[in-house]
Amino acid sequence: MLKPIKLTLLFCLTSLMTYAHISTKEKNALLAIYNATQGDYWTQTWDLEADVSTWQGLTIENNSIVAIDLSLNNLSGTLPIEIGHLHNLQTLNLFRNNISGVIPSSIGNLKQLETLNIAFNKLEGELPETIGQLMSLVNLELFMNNINGSLPASIGNLSKLEKLALFNNQLNGAIPAEIGNLSLLKEIYLSSNDLSGKIPSSIQNLTVLEKLSLFDNKLFGAIPSGLGKLARLQELILSDNLLYGIVPSELAELKSIKVLMLNNNQVKGDFANLERKLPQGVQFEYRNLDKMKNSVLATND
User: Does 273 reside within a domain?
Assistant: First the structure.
């Protein structure tokens, strides 16, 4: 008799381990996402009658949802406010779908979130100020959407951020000086927006920055000489703006630079001398609006 009892207990324990016991609040948040983004028409849909542990794209740890990856899955509709109930979420990847509407302000409740990727969708409206509450965020990727309005100053609170990718949107206004607070930032991609104002001098504080892409905006004023202090900078792309003044000689101090693009601005200066001082093999392009395009591959023979 003991053997059947042991087998029954083993089966029960196995069943408990198989099924996820997430909170009702988290499950309701998942159902809200499903309903708001037309879950019945997803490429890989969820069987709502089955256990949550079987639902495609979820990672569950300690009975909590820690990751959602529904990229390339034909989501449409909008993001529900209930998404802010997933308090233990660390990764939210909704890349390349057809999600429209605004990013709900409740996103700021996701204090454990490290990766937020809703790139290649149809998002619109302004970025919520609450995005600055994502204190664990490392990667923020919202490129290829229709997001408008200005970059909120609260973005300067994202002290762990390493990658900021918001290119190909409709962002306007100035780049907030608070961006200079992000001491761990390695990559900034803000190209192909409608940004104006000056390049904030505070960017010189980003000592681990490797890539700065601001091309195809309406930025004006002089190129900050402090950019020459960015010893790890590999790509500096400022093309197709309204920048003017003398090209700072300090750019020659960019010893890690591989791509330096200043073309389609109104910047003047001794480009030939700057070229000679750049590291060997740098792709260096510059052009004033009233001149033919110049493109040189810098070599130090």
Answer: yes
Residue 280 burial (10 A CB sphere; 0-12, 13-18, 19+): exposed
Q: Is the pLDDT of residue 206 over 80?
A: yes
Q: What is the pLDDT of residues 151-175, one digit of tens each?
A: 999 999 999 999 999 999 999 999 9
More confident residue, 14 or 151: 151
* Assigned domain for 227 exists: yes
> Does some domain include residue 240?
yes
Domain total of the chain: 1
According to DSSP, the β-strands at 266-268 and 115-117 are: unpaired
Is residue 118 within 8 A of residue 145, CB to CB? The reply is yes
With contact defined as beta carbons under 8 Å apart, do 154 and 131 qualify? yes
Answer yes or no: are the C-beta atoms of 95 and 116 closer than 8 Å. Answer: no
Cβ neighbours of residue 152 closer than 8 Å, sequence gap 6 or more: 127, 128, 129, 131, 132, 176
CATH at residue 228: 3.80.10.10
Asked whether residue 297 is domain-assigned, the answer is yes
What's the domain range around 235?
Answer: 150-301
pTM: 0.90
pLDDT tens digits, one per residue of 74-101: 999 999 999 999 999 999 999 999 999 9
